[in-house]
Design goal:
The chain is of the alpha+beta class and about 350 residues long. The chain has a single domain, classed as 4-Layer Sandwich (Glutamine Phosphoribosylpyrophosphate, subunit 1, domain 1). About 30% of the residues lie in helices and about 25% in strands. It has nine helices and 14 strands. Strand 7 and strand 8 form a beta hairpin. Helix 2 packs antiparallel against helix 3, helix 3 packs antiparallel against helix 4 and helix 8 packs across helix 9. It is globular and about 55 Å long. The N terminus is likely disordered. Bound molecules: 2-acetamido-2-deoxy-beta-D-glucopyranose (NAG) (2 copies).
Length: about 350
């Protein structure tokens, strides 16, 4: 009797056999990050602890070279970090952009949330704040990032994110000067997953507390000072314990113009299921930039989740990680792209 009651109840509640709480979900197959977040929840940590620990694991492991130190050198060869964390109960956010010389960007983002009344700190000042809060300042350059940088210099600084300047940025290095007339806008893509693999992570516990976070070292060869979508509230991630959470990855310069994470959460609030919310957020961007590369993960407060993507370079699917009580371990999931 008893096992049947339990099993039948579970089957009735979760007909797809996939939704349960707590839930951790993150972009890309960053399994160790999922495990770190899951362990944090299992050992009594909050959803904020889970998101921070999960993203921090990627910063330490330099996930795909696009999170943490030693990746994505900018035009001057320096690695800089963007990160954010959001508390879906209080709607508090901590974020850092263009953070230099500090490895644990998501930790600094959480410190911004907990030790200031601000939402976002950037650049050298963010680094100084971090040092004052006890984070260690160290060089984020590695042999690998130096090598990526010197290859770029040798290859006439290609790819290059400048436009409407001379000398011609598709062939020459700078310094650049503005052209007198602007050319018609062309969507320039640099199809390389390894310059876009931000970790975005959502965590929801048994009591319905929701948190979201991101961490990235941005775009390889970016113009110094460039901050992407990851630390922007509603773009890189969004969390609201009354509705759910979402996090995005991809062409951040394009995606941040549409606040896809905010849009997805609002759609779930209005009753959309997570997959539909994710798809609609991607479609909204596609209307204007059909060739953009991006993906988004969504979860609602009952632990149902979904994902959607557009044009993942070299792949027809987007892969992400999920851990919940059903799996009790990180599971690799994938979704077909538009
Ligand atoms: C980095 O390069 C330096 C000098 O080229 C070399 O001595 C060092 O062993 C390298 N470090 C790693 C981790 O490969
Ligand atoms: C979450 O989404 C699932 C799937 O659409 C739905 O059955 C469930 O009611 C949603 N939960 C909430 C709280 O809206």
């Amino acid at each position: 009797m008893f096992p049947c009651v339990v099993i039948c109840t579970i089957t009735l509640l979760f007909p797809l056999g996939r939704a349960s709480l707590p839930l951790v979900i993150n972009t890309w197959p960053f399994k160790d990050a999922t495990a770190a977040a899951w362990d944090a929840l299992q050992s009594g940590g909050s959803v904020l602890d889970a998101v921070e620990k999960g993203c921090a694991r990627c910063e330490t492991e330099q996930c795909d070279g696009s999170v943490g130190y030693g990746g994505s050198p900018d035009e001057t060869g320096e690695t800089t970090l963007d990160a954010m964390i959001m508390n879906g109960d209080t709607m508090e956010v901590g974020a850092v952009g263009d953070l230099k010389r500090i490895k644990n960007a998501v930790g600094v983002a959480r410190a911004v949330m907990e030790y200031t009344s601000h939402t976002m700190l950037v650049g050298e000042s963010a680094s100084l704040f971090a040092e004052n809060m006890g984070f260690i300042a160290e060089d984020l350059t590695t042999n690998k990032s130096m090598n990526i940088f010197s290859q770029w210099l040798k290859g006439n600084c290609q790819p290059n994110y400048r436009k409407n300047v001379f000398p011609d940025p598709s062939q020459y290095c700078g310094p650049y000067k503005p052209r007198a007339t602007l050319q018609p806008n062309k969507m320039r893509r640099h199809a390389n997953t390894h310059s876009h693999d931000t970790i975005g992570m959502l965590a929801i516990d048994q009591d319905g507390h929701v948190a979201a976070g991101t961490s990235t070292n941005g775009l390889t060869h970016k113009v110094p000072g460039r901050v992407g979508d990851s630390p922007i509230v509603g773009a890189g991630a969004y969390a609201d314990s009354e509705a759910g959470a979402a996090a995005a990855t991809g062409d951040g310069d394009v995606m941040m113009r549409f606040l896809p994470s905010y849009l997805a959460v609002e759609l779930m609030r209005a009753g959309a299921d997570p997959s539909t919310a994710c798809k609609t957020a991607i479609s909204r961007i596609k209307r204007h930039y059909s060739e953009f590369f991006g993906a988004i993960i969504c979860a609602n407060t009952t632990g149902h989740y979904g994902a959607a993507c557009n044009k993942v370079p070299g792949l027809s699917q987007f892969r992400f990680m999920v851990a919940n009580t059903e799996s009790d371990a990180p599971l690799l999931k994938s979704v077909d792209c538009f």
